[in-house]
Every structure is written in C-alpha cells, then in structure tokens.
Predict the structure.
Amino acid sequence: MAKIFLVLGFGFAVGFCGILKEKGLRINAKLQTFWLMLLIFCMGVSIGRNKEIIGALPSLGGKALLYACLAVVGSVAAVWMLVRVCMKKERDR
C-alpha cells in the first residue's frame, strides 16, 4: 500500500510542479487511457472466470442499475440546486 501512495505522491508532485509540458501531457493522457482500458479488461477477465459472480449477475445487475439511477438522479438534483443558488447570487450582484 505504501508503494501506491508513494507513486501517487510522485505523480502529484510532477503535476503540481508543472514538469510535464504540452507534449508530455498528451502522452500522459494516452497512457492513462491505455492503462485504464487494460485494467478494465483484466477486471472483466476476473469477473468472467468467477462462477459465483456469473451466477449472481441477475440480482447484482438489478442493484447496480438501481444504484446508477439513484446516483444520476442525485447528481442532477445537486447540480440543479447549486445552479439555482449560484445563479441567484449572480443575479443579485
């Protein structure tokens, strides 16, 4: 776990200090996308090989859909309220 925080801290320092220039940032974005896709692929392989998860997918899928819908509704409601509050302050100026 310490290695993860060390690498994360190093990445934060590089980003905060502005060490990477425009070309480096473009390469970084492509690398992030590549490694994220590889991570998602590996997770898919792990899930596909686990018979317990495959058997529980119908109930897990329903719960996941419910949680996703609630997250979207909650996010939209929060943004709507914040926009109303912030826009009111802008109109009052």
User: Anything to note?
Assistant: The chain has a mean pLDDT of 90. The chain has three helices and no strands.
